[in-house]
Amino acid sequence: MSETSITFPASVFPDGTAAPHLLAREIAALVGTTDPNPIRLLRVETADGEVTLVLENCPDPELFRPSLRQLVTAHRAGLVQVRSARYAEVDAKTDELIARGFPFQGLLFSTSIEAQSRMLGMDALRNDPAMTYPIVFNSLDDEAALTISDAATVHALVLTGIGYYRAVIDSGSALKAQVRAATTVDEVLAVVDPRE
Q1: Left if phi > 0, otherwise alpha if psi is -120 to 50, otherwise beta: which for 69?
Q2: For residues 57 and 2, is the Cβ–Cβ distance under 8 A?
Q3: What's the pLDDT tens digit per position in 165-186?
């Protein structure tokens, strides 16, 4: 068993503990050895801002140093860039879904920050004796209106809106968690936003 050590600055691994293992696999693929004993990562050592991969059955890194530099550059930038792009896509879809509004009693209502503020204010005052009913809420497109005649309906409207908003935000957060958990560009690209 031969051991080879390859040392990198810690900044090569901004994505956490799985990154050294991923890079070790990428090195094995880069070298493409025909040795029946595959290259494998024995251990990861960290000290003084550096990370050392100790590999088994790996040829001298000087033999493939230029390719290794390219691999590290791609590893450092590619995964981060693809993740950033995927996060932006998830955010854009989340914003789109919020802008569509939420359904209540056959109409769509706004989930904008202003609309949320108004609805929460109405909900807080729904049982106040000074609150007079009926209350009219315009639909998102202003083509229809909902006439609310009691506190229970105001509260139901608000809870429906909050539930919709929360579901959209939570579904985006779940997708971002999948992107964060991905350890390769292909895994990031495999995360699909199923929200319609």
Answers
A1: alpha
A2: yes
A3: 999 999 999 999 998 888 777 7
DSSP readout, 129-168?
TT--S-EEEE-TTSS-EEEE-SHHHHHHHHHHHHHHHHHH
Please name the residues in contact with 158: beta carbons below 8 A apart, sequence gap of 6 or more: 119, 120, 122, 123
Half-sphere exposure (CA, 13 Å, Cβ side) for 74?
Answer: 13
CA–CA separation, 27 and 23 (whole Å): 6
**What tokens appear for 176 in the block?**
């971002």
Closest CA to 158 of 194, 192, 126: 126
Query: Identity (one letter) of the amino acid at 106?
Result: G
The model's pLDDT over 111-149, given as tens digits with 9 standing for 90+, comes to 988 998 999 999 999 999 999 999 999 999 999 999 999
